Amino acid sequence: SCELTLSVSCLQPGCFGYPLSIFFIVINEFCERFSYYGMRAVLILYFKYFLQWDDNLSTAIYHTFVALCYLTPILGALIADSWLGKFKTIVSLSIVYTIGQVIVSVSSINDLTDHNHDGSPDNISVHVGLSMIGLILIALGTGGIKPCVAAFGGDQFEDDQEKQRTRFFSIFYLSINAGSLLSTIITPILRAQECGIHSKQRCYPLAFGVPAALMAVALVVFIAGSRMYKKVQPQGNIMIQVSKCIGFAIKNRFRHRSKEFPKREHWLDWASEKYDKVLIAQTKMVLKVLFLYIPLPMFWALFDQQGSRWTLQATTMDGNFGAIQIQPDQMQTVNPILIVIMVPVVDAVVYPLIKKCKINFTPLRKITVGMFLACLAFVAAALVQVQIDKTLPVFPAAGQSQIKIINLGTDAATVQFEPQLQSVNVMSMESTSYMTFETSQLQSLKVMSGNKTTPADIKLLGGDRHTLEVKNNATSVVAQLLFDNVTSKPEEGNNLIRFLNNLPNPVNVTMGDTSFGIVTPLSASNYNLFPGGRNDKIMAISNSMHCSVTSKAFGFGSAYTVVINECSGGTLDVAYSEDIPPNTVHMAWQIPQYFILTCAEVVFSVTGLEFSYSQAPSNMKAVLQAGWLLTVAVGNIIVLIVAGASKLSEQWAEYVLFAALLLAVCIIFAVMAYFYTYVDPNEIEAQLDEEEKKSKNQNVCEKQAEADSQM
Fold first, then answer.
1. Disordered: where is this region (predicted)?
2. pTM of this prediction?
């Protein structure tokens, strides 16, 4: 067998002292992480804006998907270690993964079911069905290969290449972060493009298609290195042995539950009839750490809301960073950028400073601080949400009506709402904000401008917004009520624009590439949707005139009525009446909450894995890795339960609820950590080995003595 190992080692091509095969593995990991994080970055917005789900359902499905991605690694590890081996598992599940990515990309093609070409799918259930099938396959693929790729890379090194192996894991982790960072920048840009065969939509097929292509590249690259890999045969899975040991101990204890059987020091000692002392001792150490894992899912419940609630929060904010327009889903890139900065800063500056202050900052204390910081991050998110809520428009309830007034005349006007409800003065060419009335009380109104008065009876249905346009002429005052069919703030930072014609003749109005058709005097066009943050050329054309002007920048999430007043010398004179104010809270205000949460991740996640590995036997690392990933899955399930059960109408209150729950869990964990005793697994294993040797020597001596006595 030594000769066989030697021949395999000699056959492996090398580069800079590394096996050439690891370069294929690193490239594969970069492409796979780009594919996963790129798809995940735009997923919540795809649910909300393409599948037309509300915030709660979008959040629920998003976290169900993430939970599945962290449950399937256990399945992948079992398949690799007990059946197919790492190489075949990675290849087969990568094929499943690629198919899933392609299906999700196809599901986002609007024209797939848009038979009447009206810009919206005719059969949304087809898109939902395909999306769910695709996401299940992705969860199976990404989760299944997660525990295999890094371990397969480690298998490529010889025993005397410990230094290269350590450096490989650093490069491997860097490729994960590079793929994540680039994809969360690029895929939101692709999503923001407009594409389509019959109608232009947000380009989700491209945003999902590029990650699908990268996953196909990852698969091809990995297979290309096939002949160079050192492929270790399946050795059996330690998780199965641990599970069997625990199961036998419970079953054996239950069988001997009567008082006639003496108690044993630990309940796992009931497995000693079938399993050796070393496995039982190792299992005890692992269970001790896994017990500490119980409170940890609550941290992940908050952490993974970066991709759901925090991204949805960003859609109601202003993403204008001067020359750069940031998409809501791009704010997630703040986390990987800060991780790259914070990890070395914390290791090289923060921890040494704490040590100099003679503070014993143990791993469990670090984890506790990480939980507390995550609480603060959600308090910061709640404060930002309160500021956003202050800027949101209030729409009329079922028994209410809202009316705003635009004065299109040359004189000031006074509008009296009867009976004796409110009197409003409006200057020439100005408009008011919306006023709210109880529909049942509002019966009529009276408009006075100059020396002319116009009374009018009004009957409104309630629950709607209206614009009252007022204009005086030579003989009377014209008062006309327009229906404003906008019942919610435009989403994704888009703007709603309509035109009101204050000219004496009908005009054909266009803005950018969008035609509003012919708008007759004192009437308004329908609202049309425009991407936020841009200004377009407005053109008004009739038989006797041809005028244009560049519009102002409308910001993000606004609605405007643009009044066409005059055409002079080819230049159009327009006025802007704000129906819904643009987003005014800047996305930069999310940076503090991202910064605090990233600090929490650095002291929680990195320390958590380090602590787990230091407290576990060498052959039990996989069990703890599975347990750690399980805490992430359970955390995402907690989001579903809390968000579904809380029934809170205000988003800031939900943030505070999550912060309070984690604070309570943080206190419980601090108490558990206080009573935890640190162990040295190597020392315990050495003691057990020594005891085993002594026991063997004693048995040999006894046999020898027995043989001597017989002689």
1. 690-711
2. 0.81
